[in-house]
Fold this protein.
Amino acid sequence: MKLEVERDPLAEAVAWTARALPARPTAPVLAGMRLQAGSELILSTFDYEVSAQATIPVAADEPGTVLVSGRLLAEIVRSLPAKPVDLSTDGTRTTLRCGSATFTLMLLPVEEYPTLPDMPQTTGKVGADAFASAIGQVAIAAGRDDTLPALTGIRMEINGDMLTLIATDRYRLAVRELRWNPVGTGLDTAVLIPARVLSDTARALTNGAEVSVALATADSGAADGIIGFEGAGRRTTTRLLSGEYPRIQQLLPSEFSAVAELPTAPFADAVKRVALVAERNSPIRLTFTASEVLLEAGTGDEAQASEAMGTSYDGEDMQIAFNPQYLLDGVGAIDSDIARISFTTPTRPAVITGKGEPQPDYRYVLMPIRSAG
């Protein structure tokens, strides 16, 4: 293999593809990145769960396929100067030259590398920026506990031209609805996608205008459920998660006894300041009255803090306590300069939305800490 490629497109493609490299590969070849050079340069990684592939234009003097250490290649390319990069293979080595810098990498046995899964047929398309924003809003509520694998995923419900994204870790719940363009009509299904993979993918695909979503479920005849995303010369696939997902309808309050509206940024700043004295897992207490909310943290012999700010509040006086970081996550995720918090009782979930229509497209449901106050 012998080719020349510009540094910036190569660096972007290598960084994208390296995302799927396993932290602890079960076989040495899985730590590799495969480079296939012909009329294009195709870079691939795969760990039997997640695959990533990037394609960039290149004119190869000598076509070929090699397998090199993915993480080492990523570190090298990231550090290169903004000059053309020459790649050439000789026997068991690949040499990379850029300006006055030269690196020699040992080759891994490419014949032992697994075959990447085929991309399923396209199910629909969605705007790249809107998709990335929506995933970011719900991913904050996904679980981190691998002993509850279903909760580490984002549930994607497809109903015609509507996508509903859902994540919960049992302490909070995020729901985001957005329109998309399905290929067919009448599609009604739900799948569970690893949140980390989906978050990384959505952020990295904003270089293009649209993201193509390709889905194959066991119900449709596929051996294993798999979903793929593609855009701007990049694609990734991941196996779907299995397991029972909570019935979120039971967690969404349908009626409220009180509603508060606060300026989003000043409220978030106040929460951050008061939470400075809160010990780990200690709550921040919010006391709402007609025109003011009092934020407090710390009790007894502990450090204490309090701050009052004006609010628009409709309801009986109420004190409610939350995990401060969970509260900040929800306030930071809304796309509005006014945060609306709707309550039922101090021991029932509160719902954070932006100010707008009665049925907003994003809802963040937060469980209070009952033992406080």
The longest helix spans residues 7-18.
